[in-house]
């Protein structure tokens, strides 16, 4: 068996239909190389979690199949489960047990030999910085602590492939950054393959080697974040006039450089035509005698990719990031 | 096989640890039986004076057997509640993912239920003895009563586990509890079978729980016990609901934990 | 006053509609006591042979049980429902409207009493179908309905008090076992003078719920007994005053604090 087969993911035409519902996952194909971090990006209800449930053998596919770590998810469920770790949505923890209790349960469930359970558990709790909280009931943990414990639990049997289903949903920015560091370290140092779902563009952008964008059960784009953005191409420029009354005049100047794109109130923005650059825009505004308070060059984001592929914006979930004032 | 035992042990350890560190979790499965014991054995004892009521060990022992079996049954049902809430909040996925053989999960929950039932049973015995219950059966009889109670606990746990694995929501609570409650009360609860009157007499004669309750009363009073009938029914019911629960595991696997 | 009546009507309507839309909430409080009664009437029929038992039909004795049990269950519902209103902020929304504070509680109580009235009628209908004797005749049935309404108000008041005070449906549910204690450690299953254990008889004598049972039962078994009726109405009224006063105070605190 090649290394690629032993730690990668190969998905062939995976389908899941629910009773009386649409196809939650509609024949997707994808490949994840060993040691790669694959970001599965899409809005709520796009089919991300259903895909993860199937790849982790928790949900039988309606059609198609996949090989995870070299094992068929339909026929070799136990072998797949032995090779993978998973931290699923809503960090499923028992509020009445301590972190240590969870570790003990998980090491026992995973068949870690009796003499090694304690040491392995402590090692992981230490690694995610929960050693001090190990004897406290999980009910009192913060959201970030729960996710870190969940991640540590997924790692007890040194899985070759790790599934993370929206690992940072609902976390504050600093907890999120901590978790990203930990996941990046796993892939870099341990060579763990990571399959990560997210609805955050930034997360996919920062963390993933390659991104698959899923919408309505199908993959609409796939590639490295850079390649995907390059496909969209040109950056946009956004100018905020010092005097709000000048907005239309500024928009008029900008329109010489490209087609207008949405901008915050009081500002104007265009997608630059090829060859234009920021310096020329500044000169043009100067020539028109317009004072500008703020001028920004935006590289295309994965949001622009999503917009280009689906015609919709990938709205961040409502609980996220309070609207800027 | 070793992994099967590991999984069963891990899950049983979890439920036992939970109860040990949060004793209030035992309250529901303890308080109702204790309460019924007080209300029935204490409040209704003059029912023991009814002509034709000739139970040798007194009304307290008569009601204790019912309450013990009821506590064992409800203890089993509470296991179903635990399984259902594990499914509802996703904890079961952790178990399903880690266990190579999912039947180990069922075994673990069952083992946990047995341990809890044993604790509740011991407490009930203590309360009953403290309240002056008369025991006329010998050691073997009492051992038989304990085995009977554990079989009832097992059967109720399998019943509720089967429901929990199929419905996978705590909304299923009444669906687990009500049938157990009814079948227990459609039996000779307050008076022996031959003193029952009306429709309940007919129902109690057909109720498979009736021989278990009457058998338990024979055991505590050292009366004429029919082991083949009583344990035959108890083991038969246990096997039936074991099959129900095992198929429930398969149903949970199909639905995606 | 007209406005108060209208607001009360709206609140009562809401509490009835809410119950009717959730069959899981309305069926058990009516059906479960009936099933218990059915089981006990049959299973405890032998109790009528205890020397000194006041009637030779256990049904006549036991029909009061579901009435009080139903009222107790309904009080839990009333309490959880008002606690959920606190939790979800619905109560605050109501408090911001010009609605009079009194209408909130009046509406809730009216709704609960209406449900209790209907369930009592159901219990009586089932009882008469099964051969219930009613010693005090038609006027007695009316007095019994009045007493059961007062009992429903009493428990709904207590439930609302606990719900408003704690603001947590779980806390209200947690009171449930306590209600069982009051229900069973009473003269609900046997007349007090036939309870053999002294401690049980003493507890039942101190338990106000015993007098509610005895008041209802006196109308069915014995006819017109001034003492039993006075005690029954007296205790029900006392609990009702306590409950309604407590609920009113708790509502005032809760709405003023926020």
UniProtKB/TrEMBL annotation, chain A:
Keywords: Antibiotic resistance, ATP-binding, Cell membrane, Membrane, Nucleotide-binding, Translocase, Transport. It holds the Pfam family ABC_tran. It is a peripheral membrane protein. The keyword Transport applies. The keyword Cell membrane applies. It is found in: Cell membrane. GO terms for molecular function: ATP binding. Residues 9-241 form the ABC transporter domain. Belongs to the ABC transporter superfamily. Drug exporter-1 (DrugE1) (TC 3.A.1.105) family. This is ATP-binding cassette domain-containing protein.
TrEMBL record, chain B:
Residues 12-218 form the ABC-2 type transporter transmembrane domain. The chain crosses the membrane at residues 25-44, 64-84, 105-130, 142-163, 175-193, 228-246. It is found in: Membrane. The keyword Membrane applies. It comes from the Bacteria. It is a multi-pass membrane protein. Keywords: Membrane, Transmembrane, Transmembrane helix. Pfam families: ABC2_membrane (PF01061). This is ABC transporter permease. It comes from Solirubrobacter deserti.
Automatic annotation (TrEMBL), chain C:
It is a multi-pass membrane protein. InterPro entries: ABC2_TM, ABC2_TM_bact-type, ABC_2_transport, Nod_factor_ABC_transporter. It comes from the Bacteria. The lineage of its organism: Bacteria, Bacillati, Actinomycetota, Thermoleophilia, Solirubrobacterales. The keyword S-adenosyl-L-methionine does not apply. Its main location: membrane. Residues 24-254 form the ABC transmembrane type-2 domain. The keyword Cell membrane applies. Keywords: Cell membrane, Membrane, Transmembrane, Transmembrane helix, Transport. It is found in: Cell membrane; Membrane. Belongs to the ABC-2 integral membrane protein family. The chain crosses the membrane at residues 20-41, 61-83, 104-126, 138-164, 171-190, 229-251. This is Transport permease protein.
